[in-house]
Amino acid sequence: MRGELEQSLAETYGRLTFWSAILMAGGWGWHLLKGDTTNWLIHFGIGLLLMTPILALAHLGWLARDRDRLTVRYCGAAILLIACALLIGLLLESDR
Length: 96
Prior knowledge:
Layout: H1 2-34, H2 40-63, H3 69-95
Helix pairs in contact: 1-2, 2-3
């Protein structure tokens, strides 16, 4: 069971990292072709790359839901704390 869980998490992490790299490379190519200063593809790729550990943590909670309830609680608590920190940061930034 543990090996399957680790393998599934590794595949999830690899896929998310791969797709964020694809998005950033596509945005970079678009930037070179069009010559624009900002590109939403690059921003989305960086955002996905930054969200990869949080999404992997959510995936861990999902995989462990039938076997280990404490892991699910800790994953949920960690995600809620990260969401609160993000919300506070966005609110403080909007006050400037």
